[in-house]
Design brief:
By secondary structure, this protein is of the alpha+beta class. It is built from 13 helices and 4 strands.
């Protein structure tokens, strides 16, 4: 009988430990430590483990913010997720007080991710968690050696939002950094052109630079952009009826100089329409009002 059982039973040495049971044991050990000590370890958080953490430890966590969740999902889908000091924190009461959006993202994407798990933090620490200044995209671009990092970050974030067709969507720092590295030359030139225009006219530099970037990368007449920008910025060699003259009047009037995302889209569209008429040599004196937030005009 003993021999029969031994042939059907798997040797103990070959049994694979259950990751969820191991994790619960890890947490229980962390909760037994003195109050001035923490237990920290890097874990490979699988979708099953993430779901378990949400079900067992997610008791008093912060409000779920959809945009934060979507941003992490994009980073995981695009392979941008990296192991950092931010991961999962389970406090001394056994409650998840940091990491809920990361856990939901792992479950949603079905992608495992290595994360630092810390157990035993003071529950009162949640009140000051993340209150320090977070590193912004401009900080990362500055470290990368990008010139005008603040303006570059604003431009790239605006372009990526336009490409997605969702101006309220959050754009991650890694997305901005990657796009900047891939398209640096036209982006850098567009930032300089946008700054020149914004120095003399009302409106958004990000919108003006976006127009210039679209022309530099999509127009077969990009060689004409420098003279066009000088005309818009300085009013040189233009007269009444010239589309650039009409655009300058509209910008100076402040009618399309709003700072909202939809207003910036409208500014880009007015520039694209002016560019089209400029190339065609047409004259006109008045702009037809464009609906705020409309789709981008085509690039000639």
């Amino acid at each position: 009988m003993l021999q029969e059982l031994s042939t059907k039973s798997q040797p103990i040495s070959q049994l694979k430990p259950d990751p969820i049971q191991l994790f619960d044991g890890f947490v229980m050990h962390g909760l037994t430590l003195p109050k001035d000590e923490l237990l920290a370890e890097v874990w490979n958080v699988t979708p099953a483990l993430a779901e378990h953490i949400l079900q067992k430890y997610h008791n008093k966590n912060r409000k779920f913010i959809v945009n934060n969740f979507k941003k992490i999902v994009r980073e995981m889908d695009n392979g941008h997720w990296r192991l950092t000091s931010q991961g999962v924190s389970i406090n001394s009461d056994g409650d998840l007080d940091d990491g809920q959006h990361r856990m939901h993202a792992i479950v949603a994407t079905g992608t495992a991710a290595k994360m630092l798990v810390v157990v035993g933090a003071d529950p009162e620490g949640f009140k000051v968690l993340d209150t320090g200044r977070k590193r912004q995209a401009a900080d990362v671009l500055s470290i990368d050696g990008v010139v005008n990092p603040k303006n570059m970050a604003a431009l790239v974030a605006f372009i990526l939002a336009l490409k997605r067709g969702n101006m309220s969507a959050q754009v991650s720092t890694s997305e901005i950094s990657d796009f900047t590295a891939e398209h640096y030359e036209p982006l850098h030139e567009a930032v300089l052109f946008g700054a020149k225009i914004c120095k003399h006219l009302k409106g958004s530099q990000a919108a003006y630079s976006t127009f210039c970037y679209l022309v530099l990368t999509e127009s077969s007449h990009a060689d004409k952009l420098p003279s066009f920008v000088d005309g818009v910025a300085f009013g040189e060699n233009i007269k009444r009826g010239d589309p650039v003259y009409t655009l300058r009047n509209m910008l100076n009037s402040g009618r399309i100089s709003g700072s909202s995302a939809s207003a910036k889209v409208q500014q880009v569209n007015h520039f694209l329409r002016t560019w089209e008429k400029y190339l065609l040599g047409e004259t006109f004196h008045h702009y037809r009002a464009m609906p705020i937030g409309s789709n981008l005009h085509r690039v000639r």
